[in-house]
Each structure stands twice: as structure tokens, then as C-alpha cells.
Amino acid sequence: MNLLIMGLPGAGKGTQASKIVDEFGLIHISTGDMFRAAMANQTEMGKLAKSYIDKGDLVPDEVTNGIVKERLSQDDIKEKGFLLDGYPRTIDQAHALDKTLEELSLQLNGVINIDVNPESLIERLSGRIINKKTGETFHKVFNPPAGDYNEDDYYQREDDKPETVKRRLDVNIAQGQPIIDHYRKVGIVHDIKGDQEIPQVFVDIKKVIDSL
Ligand code: AP5
Ligand code: MG
Fold it and tell me: Which residues bind ATP (predicted)?
């Protein structure tokens, strides 16, 4: 099974993706996670990505298309299936993905579109905390770590600063609609109400995937 998960910054793509891959054994391919790993390792690509990500802008398509194609070409993809998170994010990326999938004889089975009121996203992103050791994502209010947790064990993403968040939302709102329309034409988009509690969002997503 090969899926995309889409939604604005903070919609809950990463949160739901980790539940989906646990349940269905798919390979999680998050372009944001790949860029953050490259930034942490200070590779050339990481340095380039940082110059865009820190401003809330998109990394150029040719870079992003390249890393996704490379990952999709690996042997485990055909065996396990994939869940792409945060890609495609421009219509040109959607066309590049169509071409890559055709070349690799892979097919998309569904697009999970998490629909959230943009007004709630600032609050979600400003309260997001990530465990330094495990990389697991939480929220100070909506999804706090269990028990008495030590704030020093968690960090906030650089691009979750209010000025950057505003830019990220503007960029993604502008780019998103043509991509959804592109997949609606093929009839594979499944809209999920994202303004519900995390477990309920997953119940709805699981129903969709079970039906595919
Ligand atoms: P990326 O890492 O993909 O960031 P994003 O799309 O902005 O999305 P987020 O990861 O911020 O949000 P999410 O939807 O995963 O939400 P989460 O589950 O964490 O990309 C970062 C940057 O990399 C981009 O800005 C761009 O520069 C670059 N990039 C990446 N892909 C690219 C591409 N294809 N092309 C070009 N550039 C690219 O949840 C957020 C918070 O809300 C958490 O605290 C969570 O606990 C909480 N939460 C989740 N669900 C709920 C709920 N139902 N109710 C209440 N709280 C919730
Ligand atoms: Mg994410």
C-alpha cells in the first residue's frame, strides 16, 4: 500500500504518520525529517535546506524531488509500501512524483488529507515539543508526555517561532490547493477532520486505510 498524508503545517501529519506506520508497517518518508537530519549532520544539502527552512520557505523542487526519488528507488519500498509525509508540496513536485512512480512501476493507493482550521495551527506549532532522545512529538497542552516530565529533555523546532510559522502557513496555503485538486481528479483523496482529538483522527484514518 502506497499513501500520501497531506495537511497544513501543524495539521498532525507526523503525529498520525507514526501511528499509521506502526499499524500498517509502511515506510515513513518525511521530507521535513530528511532535511532536519541533513541539517543536524551539516551536510551540503542540509546547509542549503537550512537557508530556506529557517525563513519558512520551501526548499527548491529539484533538491526535494531528488531525495524523494532516491528513497523511493530503494528495495524495501516495493516490499513494504510507503507513506509520504510533506511531499509533494508544489504542483511541480506532484508532477515529478507521478513521473518517478511511473518509472519505478509504483502506484499511489490513497491521499489522506487532514483538514484543519488554520486558526488552530499557530497554537499547535507554538506548543509542540520533541523528545531529544526518541524524537517523539508531543504538545505541551494537547498531548503532554506522561507523568512529571523534565522540560530539558525536550526541544522546540527552530521553524516553530511565531514569525516563521506565519510564513510557513502562507506558503503552504498558497501551494496546497492545486495539489489536492490534482489528486481529486484521480479520485484518491480522503478528507479527514483534523480538528478532533488525536486518537479520534487516527480512528477515522484507519477506517479509510482499511477500506483501500
Ligand atoms: P515539515 O517538517 O514537513 O513541516 P510542516 O509541513 O510545516 O508540518 P509540521 O511537521 O510542522 O506539522 P505536522 O502536520 O507534521 O504536525 P505534527 O503532527 O507535528 O517541513 C518543514 C520545512 O521543511 C518546510 O517548511 C520546508 O521548508 C521544508 N520542506 C519539507 N518538505 C518539503 C517539500 N516537499 N518541498 C520543499 N520544502 C520542504 O503536530 C503539530 C503539533 O500539534 C504537535 O505538538 C502535536 O502534538 C499537536 N497535534 C497533532 N494533532 C493534534 C490534534 N488532533 N489535536 C491537538 N493537537 C494536535
Ligand atoms: Mg511533521
Answer: 10-15, 128, 137-138, 196
